[in-house]
Amino acid sequence: MKNILITGGAGFIGSHVARLFVRKYPDYRIVNLDKLTYAGNLANLADIEAEPNYVFERGDICDFEALRSLFARYDIDTVVHLAAESHVDRSIVDPFTFARTNVMGTLALLQAARLHWEASAGGYGGKRFYHISTDEVYGALPLTRPDGEPPYGEEFFTERTPYAPHSPYSASKASSDHFVRAYHDTYGLPAVISNCSNNYGPYQFPEKLIPLFINNIRNRRPLPVYGRGENVRDWLYVEDHARAIDCILHSGRTGETYNIGGFNEWKNIDLIRVLIRTVDRLTGQPEGHSLGLVTYVTDRAGHDLRYAIDSSKLKEELDWEPSLQFEEGIERTVRWYLDNQAWMDNVTSGAYEKYYEEMYRGR
Ligand code: NAD
Ligand code: TYD
User: Fold this and answer.
1) Given 135, 234, 239, 265, which residue is catalytic?
2) Domains defined along the chain, listed by start
3) Mean pLDDT over residues 254-280, rounded?
4) Model confidence pTM above 0.90
5) Measured distance CA(238)–CA(5) in Å, rounded
């Protein structure tokens, strides 16, 4: 591997992956291709932007001609594909944008990789297309043990669980996964896929539960809990996901799928109480101070009940497991958002979007 294209590197997970790779692999050239949508933010990468092995390219993964010239310009041999529209609630409002980027964008990237690699001296030798996906493609699991200790059911998503997506987001990601497998099976494209559970940590856009609620608690705003707060998610610290991606990219078997998860199920309402306790403690408020902000609202349409990942294949084959305890991960995460209020103000004001529009005008 020499020239790695990371797509979506200015987003939440992508910025952690880009940082890890730039620091860990000084001999690789890391090309970050990102459209800088509302979710992309170059401030997430400020600490690596001057590194000699890092290049940023603003662009759209749906722009096939631009992809063709990017592959040629940097002689890309490896793709780590994270660029996507990623928020379920937005996908309910605007499904077309999700189909465009997640399905057509992935297809354009696959085709650009295929054409470039098939024409290259070594063909597919030494090449790899790594597609980052989600556990939401598997649909939802039953909540058979709602009371008591997690796990909240006997079933887990494995790599053999049939696809059954419910939201436009997960349907678009499922479709992109199928296209990646189709390119592997039809053209021999050396592809690998991973499906990960819910991530949390620094630099996550505050539309997702954890950063949204931390910010709302801090600003004394209501905390909109969908339905009864009984839905279950499996949470993984974003740096553990980035480590898993590194591991699978370098050691995963071509044509395989790996599930990544934390064996860390939480009912939303229990997780929200942990967030409240942590923010209150770190901001010097008495215990229970912000509990009154909890506001039960109309449930999300098609709200998946429970996600739980079985990541034992990854443990057995590649010896990966989460390194961070959830309590420590949450503590770190809350501290980061409280210490980086300027980052939060920027991404919520929309000022940074205008700034990047200006910066890239005419390019
Ligand atoms: P994000 O929304 O924070 O970032 C997405 C990035 O993609 C942004 O920088 C955005 O500007 C860029 N982008 C969007 N459309 C683009 C386009 N057309 N061309 C180029 N760039 C574009 O998302 P995230 O949470 O970091 O998720 C990254 C990937 O990981 C996604 O593929 C997502 O499906 C997957 N994933 C996310 C989670 C999670 O919990 N966040 C869990 C499992 C898998
Ligand atoms: P989210 O962070 O949007 O991730 P996903 O839908 O991909 O799992 O939501 C996590 C859980 O929190 C999910 O069950 C929906 C719920 N939720 C709320 O109750 N209120 C909110 O305002 C948000 C954004 C999410």
Assistant:
1) 135
2) 3-201+236-265+302-325 (3.40.50.720)
3) 97
4) yes
5) 20
